[in-house]
Amino acid sequence: MRWLASFTMRGLWQAALVIVVGSLAPLLNVFSGAALALVTLRRGSREGLYLTLMAAVLASVPFALMSGTVMPVLGLLALFWSPLWLLSSALRITVCLADALRLAVLITALAVLGFNVYIGDATAWGHALMEQILTPLLTQLGMVKSDPHSVSQLFDYMAPLVLGLLFANSLASVLCCLLLGRWWQALLYNPGGFRREFHELRLGRLTTLIALPIWVLALTVRTPWLIAWAFSLMVVYALQGLAVVHGVVARAHLAKTWLVGLYVIAFFALPQLLLILCIVGAIDAWGDFRARYKVAD
Q: Would you tell me how many other CB atoms lie within 10 Å of the CB of residue 193?
């Protein structure tokens, strides 16, 4: 990781190369975003903006050759690179991960409302999208013919959730890149800094008091935009829950195998683990589990 971070910081062209190459492969996209975050965090928002625009122009060439259009690049610019640049700029100014997460949720909430207005009926849109994506797969499995009623029920149940799942996934991707970029920055210029910063991550009681009624309403009303807000809050509180676990393990001087076990569980049961981490993160607003232990050296 260090060599890639060092290569990114050699200059704008090197950073743009990392971003463009990473954007071409879905599995490498996290490194693409981390490179943008690192440059913005270290060199400022202006240079980060130059890099964003440079990467967009350079990425247009391979995308146009492969797909015949630059629309994927415009999508990356609007939904991934621009929010990441904005959050990195904010984190550079505030030097507070919690503030960056709150801003990320606010941006996502506004984007959800705007997109909801644009598409009109979010439930119908989600139903149509699921039919387009899942019907061929379910047809191959024989479920459409053998049990069409159950398939229809599945689509009806999932349709209000689609908007939230898409935006929550986008938010999680952006935040993973932001955190990786922050870790790279610490790795190069402030060893151990990210560890301390992440272990102390707390969203606070006020944010939790805002989140709780949104979660309750999302469960009862099942309005797509409200569900999307709830999912977005779950993402950031799952991150706080993860910070709680890491902080407790460090402060209590527990074996690293506890963290290894956590990530093994994530591989097999990620949705359930995310829910548990979200609950831990919300309870920590009052429980403050990490305060029970002295700060690890």
A: 14
pLDDT digits (tens, 9 = 90+) for 209-226: 999 999 999 999 889 999
Look at residues 16, 136, 125 and name the one whose alpha carbon lies nearest to residue 81. Answer: 16
Tokens of 36: 């943008």
CA torsion angle for 166, 168, 169, 171 (degrees, to 10)? Answer: 120
The span from the CA of 9 to the CA of 265, in Å, is: 35
The full length of the chain comes to 297
Statement: the pTM of the whole predicted model exceeds 0.85: yes
137-166: burial string, b at 16+ Cβ within 10 Å, e else = ebeeeebbeeeeeebeeebeeebbbbbbeb
Cα–Cα distance for residue pair 35/180, rounded to 1 Å: 9
Angle among Cα 270, 37, 198 to the nearest 5 degrees reads 55
Q: How far is the C-alpha of 42 from the C-alpha of 9, rounded, in Å?
A: 9
Q: Where are the alpha helices (DSSP H) in 159-256?
A: 162-189, 193-199, 205-221, 224-251
Encode pLDDT of 77-107 as tens digits: 988 999 999 999 999 999 999 999 999 999 9
